[in-house]
Specification:
This protein has a five-stranded mixed β-sheet, with no helix packed on it. Strands 1-3-7-6 form a four-stranded antiparallel β-sheet, with no helix packed on it. A hairpin with a 6-residue loop joins β6 and β7. It contains one helix and nine strands; from the N terminus they run αβββββββββ. The chain is α+β, with helices and mostly antiparallel strands. The termini are far apart. The relative contact order is 0.24. Bound molecules: copper (II) ion. Copper (II) ion binds next to β5.
Length: about 130
């Protein structure tokens, strides 16, 4: 009986250890957030997202945002997309864009990113409000 419970404790420890390692390598340790939620509704409207490490709170530099989609899914118009392009940024961990917003309301920027030192793709969704 004692042996069995020891074995279970050992097993639990292994599972926990494994879980921690998986969580550490997971893209869930990063977060994208809007630099400013409100954006100007219209052409050539600039907006930006900040990529941070959840563990340290520090900005993450050098990420490659290789796929982005800007749509009105927050307002149940997921098929309504806006043309957007990446812009140069000088602030660490901040990734800038400009877009042609065509409607006031909620817009979601959906991102896929490659982060230095992270083998898995990091995904994020950042919601903006066009006014
Ligand atoms: Cu719309």
């Amino acid at each position: 009986m004692v042996t069995q419970s020891r074995f279970l404790v050992l097993l639990a420890g292994l599972v926990l250890g494994l879980g921690t390692r998986v969580a550490y390598a997971s893209p869930a340790v990063y977060v994208f957030e809007p630099v400013s939620v409100e954006v100007r509704n219209g052409k050539d409207s600039e907006f930006a997202v900040r990529l941070k490490s959840k563990a340290t709170g520090k900005p993450v530099e050098g990420a490659v945002l290789f796929r982005t989609r800007l749509d009105m899914s927050p307002d149940s118009m997921g098929e309504m997309t806006a043309k957007h392009t990446a812009m140069p940024s000088t602030e660490p961990g901040v990734y800038k864009f400009k877009a042609d917003f065509t409607m006031a309301g909620g817009w979601a920027l959906k991102l896929m990113a490659k982060v230095p030192g992270e083998s898995e793709t990091v995904q994020g969704t950042v919601v903006f409000k066009a006014k």
